Amino acid sequence: MKNVVKICLVAIMLFSAGIVKAQNLKFAHIDSQALIQEMPETAAAQKTLEAQAKGLEDQLASMQKEFQDKVAEYTQKADSLTDIVRQAKEEDLQNLQQRIQTFNQSAQQKMQQKQAELMQPILKKANETIEVVAKEQGVIYVFDSNAVLYKSNASIDLLPLVKAKLGM
């Protein structure tokens, strides 16, 4: 009988310790997009991307101007051209149009790759800093506030703490 009482007391103590432990769990949230947008590295990456985009846009505009000039020339002289010359000019225009489309697709891919290349270290730095601050605050879960449907006032907002850690 004494053993049963002791077992019950031990079980109650363990159960109540679990409840007390569960009450100390800390949750936090952060707007990671706001953090990344405010990081100085993001502004530098944007400037680099804009410069590269400008170069590609200038090259594309030059190709499109060439195409428009050739189309205008073709339409002016179309009636006076022989069938063989007309067919050759049409093929030339089609090839130029295909090159423009290929260049445009390639440029978009290059821009996406460059953006990923520039943003990867920024994302890594943000995630590492969030992790450090979360550990300092004793947080067991950090949710992105853009994906959370509900957050309690008891949830810790890590954005100001992470910004301070980053010196922002």
UniProtKB/TrEMBL annotation:
<dbReference type="Pfam" id="PF03938">
    <property type="entry name" value="OmpH"/>
</dbReference>
<comment type="similarity">
    <text>Belongs to the Skp family.</text>
</comment>
<dbReference type="GO" id="GO:0051082">
    <property type="term" value="F:unfolded protein binding"/>
</dbReference>
<feature type="coiled-coil region">
    <location>
        <begin position="46"/>
        <end position="113"/>
    </location>
</feature>
<dbReference type="InterPro" id="IPR005632">
    <property type="entry name" value="Chaperone_Skp"/>
</dbReference>
<feature type="signal peptide">
    <location>
        <begin position="1"/>
        <end position="22"/>
    </location>
</feature>
<keyword id="KW-0732">Signal</keyword>
<dbReference type="GO" id="GO:0005829">
    <property type="term" value="C:cytosol"/>
</dbReference>
<keyword id="KW-0175">Coiled coil</keyword>
<dbReference type="GO" id="GO:0050821">
    <property type="term" value="P:protein stabilization"/>
</dbReference>
<protein>
    <submittedName>
        <fullName>Periplasmic chaperone for outer membrane proteins Skp</fullName>
    </submittedName>
</protein>
<dbReference type="InterPro" id="IPR024930">
    <property type="entry name" value="Skp_dom_sf"/>
</dbReference>
